[in-house]
């Protein structure tokens, strides 16, 4: 049966893993200069948060956390669609996805 | 105990793939590293009594979102993503700030106030059988969270319209207007 809980490990393990993944995502946003990679790092941060949500939902046996993860995934899908559309639009005018090149607000 | 070993292996793969994504200089490789990471998270969901979310994670994230990423990378031909930055002082500062963030997060997570409220998971009691199954999540979604669900639907509609507007090729109409403007300038 699928709903056997394999990870009967302390919740704090998941909190540590979530914090580490989130920090790697933050490092990606701060260190990389490419808009596509920055988006991937944001996805990584959202996933780290989702992992913490599911771990807490399991430990408290509350379905609300899982529903919230569902909403986060929906928002992430919308965000990626808009963000990649913006990147394509910027690439058309600037021929680059490097955010250091984007230092003016004019199209 | 087998759970802890499985957790350690999966956590290692997740962290290594995240670091691989962070350091790769090819955008396609970065996207594939992220797929590994998302798959690891999906396995964690499966092991945490969330089979519905695990399947959604695979189809929506590893499926739809990453295909969109790879599609855009290949459409733009922007695979090469060099690591170098024009701001030399930024990298050490960023790493220091990230380590500070991690330290603060762990400090809060291991403070006595938080640890006192953390509940470690117990085996699912018989009355909560089916926890995290599609049926149970659907019942919670449509009973307790109906309004947020409708709002998310609206958000997706707005995002769809926004994407269509953003990617519409608007060179033709502007060219047309400027031609008209030039014509009227000449006429004047």
Shape of chain B: globular
The number of E-state strands of chain A comes to 0
Please give the radius of gyration of chain A in angstroms: 18 Å
Q: Which structural class best describes the helix and strand composition of chain A? A: mainly alpha
> What is the CATH first-level class name of chain A?
Mainly Alpha
Mean pLDDT of chain B: 85
Sequence stretches where pLDDT stays below 50 over 5 or more residues of chain B: none
Helix content of chain B: over 70%
Q: Count of DSSP helices of chain B?
A: 8
CATH domain class name of the largest domain in chain B: Mainly Alpha
* CATH architecture identity of chain A: Orthogonal Bundle
- Distance N terminus to C terminus of chain A? 55 Å
Q: Domains counted in the coordinates of chain A: how many?
A: 1
Polypeptide structure, described:
The complex is a heterodimer of chains A (107) and B (188). Chain A has 107 residues and is mostly helical. In chain A, helix 2 (35-60) packs antiparallel against helix 3 (64-94). Chain A has helices at residues 11-31, 35-60, 64-94. Chain A is elongated and about 50 Å long. In chain A, 73% of the residues lie in helices and 0% in strands. The model of chain A has no long low-confidence stretch (mean pLDDT 87). Chain A has a single domain (11-101), classed as Helix Hairpins (Orthogonal Bundle), CATH 1.10.287.3510. Chain A starts with 10 loop residues before the first helix and ends in a 13-residue tail after the last helix. With 188 residues, chain B is mostly helical. Chain B has two domains: 1-119, NADH-ubiquinone/plastoquinone oxidoreductase chain 6, subunit NuoJ (Four Helix Bundle (Hemerythrin (Met), subunit A), Up-down Bundle); 133-169. Helices cover 77% and strands 0% of the residues of chain B. Chain B has eight helices and no strands. In chain B, helix 1 packs antiparallel against helix 2 (27-47) and helix 2 packs antiparallel against helix 3. The N and C termini of chain B lie far apart (86 Å).
């Amino acid at each position: 049966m699928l709903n056997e809980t394999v990870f009967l490990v302390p919740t704090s393990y998941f909190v540590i893993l979530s914090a580490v993944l989130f920090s790697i995502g933050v490092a990606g946003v701060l260190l990389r200069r490419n808009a596509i990679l920055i988006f991937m790092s944001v996805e990584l941060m959202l996933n780290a948060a989702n992992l913490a949500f599911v771990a807490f939902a399991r430990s408290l046996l509350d379905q609300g956390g899982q529903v919230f993860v569902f909403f986060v995934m929906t928002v992430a899908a919308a965000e990626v669609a808009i963000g990649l559309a913006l990147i394509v639009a910027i690439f058309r005018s600037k021929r680059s996805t490097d955010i250091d090149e984007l230092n003016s607000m004019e199209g | 105990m087998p759970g802890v070993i499985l957790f350690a292996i999966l956590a290692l793969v997740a962290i290594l793939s995240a670091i691989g994504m962070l350091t790769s200089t090819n955008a396609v490789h970065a996207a594939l590293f992220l797929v590994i990471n998302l798959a690891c998270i999906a396995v964690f969901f499966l092991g945490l009594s969330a089979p519905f979310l695990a399947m959604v994670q695979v189809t929506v994230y590893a499926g739809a979102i990453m295909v969109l990423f790879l599609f855009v990378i290949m459409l733009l031909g922007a695979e090469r993503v060099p690591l170098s930055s024009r701001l030399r002082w930024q990298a050490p500062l960023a790493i220091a700030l990230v380590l500070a963030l991690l330290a603060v997060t762990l400090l809060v997570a291991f403070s006595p106030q938080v640890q006192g409220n953390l509940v470690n998971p117990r085996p699912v009691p018989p009355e909560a059988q089916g926890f995290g199954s599609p049926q149970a999540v659907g019942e919670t979604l449509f009973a307790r969270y109906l309004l947020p669900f409708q709002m998310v639907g609206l958000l997706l509609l707005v995002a769809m319209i926004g994407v269509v507007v953003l990617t519409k090729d608007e060179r033709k109409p502007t060219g047309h207007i400027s031609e008209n403007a030039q014509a009227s300038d000449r006429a004047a």
